[in-house]
Specification:
Elements: H1 7-16, E1 23-24, E2 31-38, H2 41-48, H3 52-55, E3 57-64, H4 66-69, H5 78-83, E4 94-98, E5 101-108, E6 111-112, E7 115-116, E8 119-124, E9 130-133, H6 134-142, E10 151-162, E11 169-170, E12 176-177, H7 184-196, H8 204-222, E13 227-229, E14 236-241, E15 247-252, E16 256-258, H9 264-287, E17 292-295, E18 299-305, E19 311-314, E20 320-322, E21 325-332, H10 333-341, E22 347-351, E23 357-363, E24 366-371, E25 378-379, H11 404-418, E26 440-444, H12 448-457, E27 468-472, E28 484-486, E29 501-503, E30 509-513, E31 522-524, H13 528-533, H14 577-585, H15 603-614, H16 616-623, H17 627-635, H18 641-653, H19 655-658, H20 684-701, E32 704-706, E33 713-715, E34 735-737, E35 744-746
Parallel strand pairs: 18-21, 30-31
Antiparallel strand pairs: 1-17, 2-18, 2-22, 2-23, 3-10, 4-9, 4-10, 5-8, 6-7, 11-12, 13-16, 14-15, 17-18, 19-21, 20-21, 23-24, 24-25, 26-27, 27-28, 28-29, 29-30, 32-33, 34-35
């Protein structure tokens, strides 16, 4: 599909794109709960909006629908309709540009303590305007916000014509789908639903169902939102497109390249419609008096009861009051199932609908549900996995690829609180033997600053990029400024205390201990048991990095805080555009911090598409590459800079025949910098890299190759090793004789004689 958008439309699409929606509500309180999720949320959203028509479209245009959108403000039954599955413009992809004044609830990415987090909250743009998907606007209305009064513009995306190169698609189940006649994603959902009802003694149907689920998610969101990220040693310029098409240029060492199927329009529409389904479901739940405990991208943890009628469950800070007590209202499972089904989304009761489960939430996207038998339980990693080293030393993962030890730790906390009657001290957490080991974080030296720091602390060790290291989690009484490092990451966990630990500030070796009263020359390190037990304290903020002024850490309850956006935020576009804002505004921000930004595609994408039209065999013949490498180029896989230079030379020579369009970017593929008229390269470095590709192709034309070591040209079939240098390059051996002692020196002959230390070479 050709996307002939100008910068204004690109900026609008990117401004309206957001990632998943996560939040946490009840914390540190165990509540009877059931887990519900939207089955195949992204593929369902894709199909219900009829987005397949854009995939097979030859091109996409836009039309102004501002006057059609504005009357939605007068629909008094809008919220009721949303909770009952009636969605205006359901199958139309519409972007709305509006000026939010604080009464509108919209997806907003605030920066708290330097970390960005997406929430739906009242938003005030202080007179500025930004773009949102209509689905997101309606989601805010469902959650209690007003329909925006100041709609500046609204545009609808319209597919034009149909591509002629679409082929039938064979699904893993054997079904063949005609993309012209059927929605492929809908067919995938139908096949997956069919497999669920089949008798599956050998597990084949289940494996195919899992494969179809992955295929649906990849087609509807993963490929569309894919961005390949790289790290370069020297900062390069990147361009961010604003909502009005204005461009902001910054320097970064983490450039990003949109994937081969990158399409913000489809990816944004898919996620926005899922958020609307979640918001409408929550609105219906609130209307019935029920309470959700946790919400993730496509799932809800809801308070339930075994009784036939709603039941009050005491919970400090809960939204419901009963006889001066705070708590939550738990609804019967069948009532919850009915109100969720009204929204039209394919909700299913995943856990807790057939047996009593206790829900325990400890932070954003961190929850556990525990069955009465203690066996039918599940949990997330709760922020442990990937942050702390695996104390079991096995690196074992669960079936959903979470760290098993971290899940076990979270379940241990949830089980201890689920068995608590609310009086007296909390039961102790039952952990395996690794609970007594020292708590250790893992790190990797990814930046020059980290490499310099490690080289200073460990002068006797050779520090290379991506060197791994450990940091001990010291007792808070040691002081916040003490950092203890070690490079002995290969030691088993039982020997971590005996590793070579060094004070990062002084470079002195230190001794660690887990004892309660260590010697004066020993640092006390916290154990995993102590670290995990700290989650149960209501004044502990480790479960979510928030600042005290947010007033989020209320006892027993965590609410989404209303956030007022800054006008500057909407001038930056990208999934993490607010990270760039933090760099510009925050004096404590670290230069060259990680950024997620989207830049204009460089010359390589057009060259790769032309190479696909040329074909792998012709490309291999003309460039001198082997057929396997040429096939990788045609498939769009990553290749080396040298290969890109060769392919670029061949394609540029055949430019007109392959329909290669002119460009105002650097000729060297992979660069993407803008160039002025009359120039081909942006720098001398790019010129040299491109000319090396030209040299290789010119030699192929006359049947020759150039040795990469000595640069000698050999005709005929490439010989190994090089007949000139043997593959080792040309070595020039210089000799000289000492005038004092007569010793002969070979190689470096400067300075005093190494034997008599007197005579100098002549």
């Amino acid at each position: 599909m050709r996307r002939e958008y100008d910068d204004r439309i690109r900026g609008a699409i990117a401004s309206a794109f957001y990632g998943g929606w996560m939040s946490a509500n009840v914390t540190h309180v165990s509540i009877p709960a059931a887990l519900f999720d939207v089955s195949g949320a992204y593929s369902w959203s894709f199909s219900i909006q009829n987005l397949w028509r854009f995939v097979i479209a030859e091109s996409v245009g836009v039309s102004d629908v501002t006057e059609e959108i504005r009357p939605l403000d007068h629909l008094e039954s809008l919220v009721e309709g949303l909770t009952n599955g009636v969605v205006p413009f359901e199958s139309r992809a519409v972007l709305v540009r509006l000026i939010a004044t604080g009464s509108e609830i919209l997806p907003t990415k605030p920066v708290r303590d330097g970390r960005a987090r997406l929430i739906l909250a009242p938003t005030d743009l202080s007179g500025a305007a930004n773009w949102w998907w209509l689905s997101d606007v309606l989601a805010g209305v469902a959650l209690g916000g007003q329909f925006p009064k100041q709609i500046v513009a609204a545009m609808e995306f319209v597919p034009r014509d149909v591509r002629a190169d679409v082929q039938p698609i064979h699904l893993p189940t054997g079904r063949v789908v005609d993309p012209y006649q059927e929605d492929v994603v809908r067919a995938i959902r139908e096949e997956r639903d069919r497999l669920r009802d089949e008798v599956d003694p050998d597990g084949l149907s289940r494996r195919n169902a899992d494969l179809l689920r992955l295929l649906g998610t990849t087609l509807t969101f993963g490929n569309m939102a894919r961005v390949d990220r790289s790290t370069v040693r020297r900062a390069i310029e990147e361009v961010i497109i604003g909502p009005d098409g204005a461009r902001l240029t910054i320097e970064t060492t983490h450039p990003e390249q949109p994937g081969p199927h990158f399409n913000f329009m489809i990816a944004g529409a898919v996620t926005a419609r899922v958020r609307l389904a979640m918001a409408a479901s929550i609105a219906g739940l609130h209307e019935s008096g029920g309470t959700w405990l946790h919400v993730a991208t496509d799932s809800l943890l809801i308070a339930v009861t075994d009784c036939a009628k709603p039941e009050f469950v005491p919970c400090p800070g809960g939204p419901v009051r009963h006889r001066k007590r705070e708590g939550v209202l738990a609804l019967p499972v069948n009532e919850i199932t009915e109100l969720l089904a009204r929204t039209g989304a394919p909700w299913r009761a995943q856990r807790g609908h057939d047996q009593r489960l206790t829900g325990h939430v400890v932070g954003t996207n961190r929850y556990a549900v525990v069955g009465r038998d203690r066996e039918s339980s599940t949990a997330t990693e709760s922020g442990l996995g990937g942050v702390y080293a695996d104390p079991t030393g096995t690196n074992e993962l669960t079936s959903d690829e979470h760290w098993k030890w971290a899940v076990d730790a979270h379940l241990a906390v949830a089980r201890s609180e689920a068995s608590w009657n609310g009086r007296g001290e909390l039961p102790k957490i039952e952990l395996p033997s690794w609970g007594s080991l020292p708590a250790v974080r893992l790190g990797v030296a990814n930046t020059a600053e980290q490499l310099d720091r490690l080289a200073t602390v460990f002068p006797e060790r050779r520090i290379r990029p991506f060197t791994r290291f450990m940091t001990a989690v010291l007792d808070p009484l040691q002081g916040d400024k003490v950092t203890v490092l070690s490079l002995d990451v290969e030691l088993p966990p039982t020997k971590w205390l005996g590793a070579h630990w060094v004070n990062a500030a002084t470079g002195e070796s230190v001794v660690l201990s887990t004892g309660q009263r260590p010697r004066s020359d020993t640092y006390r390190v916290r154990t995993y048991a102590e670290l995990i037990d700290a989650w149960r304290r209501t004044d502990d903020s480790s479960s979510e990095p928030v600042s005290p002024q947010d007033h989020v850490l209320q006892r027993g309850l965590r609410r989404t805080l209303p956030v007022v956006s800054r006008a500057e935020l909407v001038e930056l576009v990208g999934k993490e555009g607010d990270d760039l804002l933090r760099q510009l505004d925050d004096p404590l921000a670290v230069p060259d911090d990680d950024l997620t930004i989207y830049r204009r595609a460089d010359r390589w994408k057009a060259i790769q598409e032309a190479a696909e039209r040329l074909g792998s065999e012709a490309l291999a013949t003309r460039s001198g590459l082997n057929l396997r490498t040429a096939q990788r180029v045609v498939k769009g896989e990553r290749v080396s800079d040298a290969t890109m230079a060769r392919v670029s030379t061949v394609i540029e020579d055949l430019g007109d025949a392959l329909g290669l369009e002119s460009s105002n970017t650097c000729t060297r593929p992979g660069c993407g910098r803008r160039i002025t008229a009359g120039r081909k390269w942006c720098s001398e470095s790019c010129r040299k890299k491109a000319e090396r590709g030209r040299d290789a192709v010119d030699l192929v034309k006359v049947g020759a190759v150039r040795c990469t070591k000595c640069e000698a040209v050999t005709y005929g079939k490439k010989a190994k090793p090089c007949p000139s240098c043997g593959g080792k390059g040309v070595i020039e051996a210089r000799t000289d004789r000492c005038p004092e002692c007569g010793v002969e020196r070979i190689g470096a002959t400067e300075g005093p004689c190494p034997l008599c230390e007197k005579g100098r070479a002549s």
